[in-house]
Design goal:
The protein is an all-alpha fold. The protein has one domain. 58% of the residues lie in helices and 0% in strands. The chain contains four helices and no strands. The chain has helices at residues 4-27, 32-43, 58-68, 84-88. The longest helix is centred in the N-terminal third of the chain and has 24 residues, at 4-27. It is globular, with a radius of gyration of 16 Å. The chain starts with a helix and ends with a helix.
Length: 89
């Protein structure tokens, strides 16, 4: 059963998600589907692998998303000799 608090929380979540979406779309123009899917992954607490050709804004998308939720971004350049310990410490 849905209570008032549940509906209020859902409204707050929707408002916040919309604000983040508008913020990221202000930086990443012309790719609303990419922004929507990225936000969906963020809300689902999943992992996002961004793959595309060079120069299309992958790093910019990650930075804009992070700035919108007051987080930081760490970029990892994968190489054939990269080990898990190189990432996790």
């Amino acid at each position: 059963m849905t209570t008032y608090d549940d509906r209020a929380s859902l409204t707050d979540l929707t408002t916040t998600a919309e604000r983040v979406r508008r913020s990221v779309e202000g930086v990443i123009e012309g790719k609303p589907e990419v922004v929507r899917l990225s936000l969906t992954v963020l809300l689902a607490e999943g992992h996002l692998l961004i793959e595309d050709v060079p120069g299309v804004g992958k790093t910019m998308l990650a930075k804009a998303l992070a700035r919108s939720i007051d987080c930081s971004v760490r970029r990892i350049q994968f190489t054939p000799d990269l080990l898990p310990s190189d990432i996790t410490g």
